[in-house]
Specification:
Blueprint: E1 10-16, E2 28-34, H1 38-47, E3 54-57, E4 63-65, E5 70-76, E6 84-87, E7 90-94, H2 99-108, E8 111-112, H3 124-130, E9 133-134, E10 137-138, H4 139-142, E11 143-149, E12 155-159, E13 177-184, E14 186-187, H5 190-207, E15 213-217, H6 239-245, E16 252-253, E17 256-258, E18 265-268, H7 274-292, E19 301-303
Parallel strand pairs: 2-5, 3-5, 4-19
Antiparallel strand pairs: 1-2, 6-7, 7-13, 8-14, 9-10, 11-12, 11-13, 15-18, 16-17, 17-18
Helix pairs in contact: 2-5
Amino acid sequence: MIRLPEVRGKLHRARPLADLTWLRVGGPAEVLFQPADREDLAAFLGALDPAIPVTPLGVGSNLIIRDGGLPGVAIRLGRGFNTIAVEGDRVRAGAAALDAHVAIRAAKSGVAGLEFLRTIPGAIGGAVRMNAGCYGSYTADVVESITMVTRDGQIRQIGGAEIGFDYRNSDLPDGAVVVEAVLAGKPGGPGASDALMAEYIQRREDSQPVKDRSAGSTFRNPAGYSSTGAADDPVDLKAWKLIDDAGGRGLRRGGAQMSNKHPNFLVNTGDATAHDLEMLGEEVRARVKSASGHDLTWEIQRIGVFLEDQRHE
């Protein structure tokens, strides 16, 4: 059993995690820690055995937790980490603040440039770690600085250029927990921002299965390909089109399904297991590889361990 430091927040052993993810699947955390504040988090990580794995969890919007659960300590930020403050044309947001709430608050305060966050499911901490984006804008475009607590318990502030942003990725240290981000907007008007956010919402509802239980895009769009091999002749490859062409639209395994509306969305139709969802995704990857030669890369994060009876499937 893991020996745990004293905390002011909440510690739970063998805490089920399925209810904390959008797909509603997965096993328990060996330990779930909900810190009271960043100092509580820093003291805990500084005193925790360095050999114990630490997994930061957001709101579970882009995540499959495997049925065998998470070893070590899972950390989930809550109250105290969801504040939003507007400072001129900048927004200081706690890592647990929902992306949509940040976009709405910025717009109401006359700050433009953050409207794209309105339709991104999840919270700011996850948006930073995954460089979330849509409609041509990315988190990397607006992050001025972040504050994080490292695995050894240090509270550090770094600039956006130090984060190492890439497509749907960042280079943050393993075990580090983002606790706050400063986002740089620009002067704007609520009317224009509201109209743009309404447009984004409509576009999302028209093209994505927003009423189904999903975790957003399953696979990243391939990059680095062109029709002739010339750098000035790019092909805008889309994962959904490769999946569609390979016969993946509507494909099922148990309670898991690739959406009929958007074949790059993996859906829990009601009784899927984490294994159903992940193995359906792997079947889709195999079909796309066979049909087109492209290797799809998972965008949904898959963490935790398989159950013993799943290892040999």
